[in-house]
Amino acid sequence: MSDTAHPHEHAAHTDQIPRLNRIAGQVEGVKKMIVEERYCPDIITQLRAIRAAIKTIEANILERHLHSCVAGTIASGDKDEAATMIEEIKDLFKRFELD
C-alpha cells in the first residue's frame, strides 16, 4: 500500500460504506453458521458471496481511481507520476491474478 502523496484530488469512496456494512453483516452470519455447525456447502456459499461482494467494491474503487486519479495525473502532464501510477496498477493486476 502506498502512502505517497499524489498531486491530484482523490475520488471519494464513501458510497462503498453501505456495501462494506453489508459484507460485515454477512461475515457475522457466517460466524454464526460456524458456531451452529451448519452444513459446510452452505457456509462456503456464503463465503463465496462475500468474496464476490468484495470484488465488486475493488472494481468500483479501481474504476474511480482510473477515471479520477490516473486521468488527472495524465492530464497534468506529470509523466513520472503517471509512470508510477501505471506500475502501481500493473502490480494490482498481478495480485488480482493470484485471487
UniProtKB/TrEMBL annotation:
<dbReference type="Pfam" id="PF02583">
    <property type="entry name" value="Trns_repr_metal"/>
</dbReference>
<dbReference type="InterPro" id="IPR038390">
    <property type="entry name" value="Metal_Tscrpt_repr_sf"/>
</dbReference>
<dbReference type="InterPro" id="IPR003735">
    <property type="entry name" value="Metal_Tscrpt_repr"/>
</dbReference>
<dbReference type="GO" id="GO:0045892">
    <property type="term" value="P:negative regulation of DNA-templated transcription"/>
</dbReference>
<dbReference type="GO" id="GO:0046872">
    <property type="term" value="F:metal ion binding"/>
</dbReference>
<dbReference type="GO" id="GO:0003677">
    <property type="term" value="F:DNA binding"/>
</dbReference>
<protein>
    <recommendedName>
        <fullName>Repressor CsoR of the copZA operon</fullName>
    </recommendedName>
</protein>
<comment type="similarity">
    <text>Belongs to the FrmR/RcnR family.</text>
</comment>
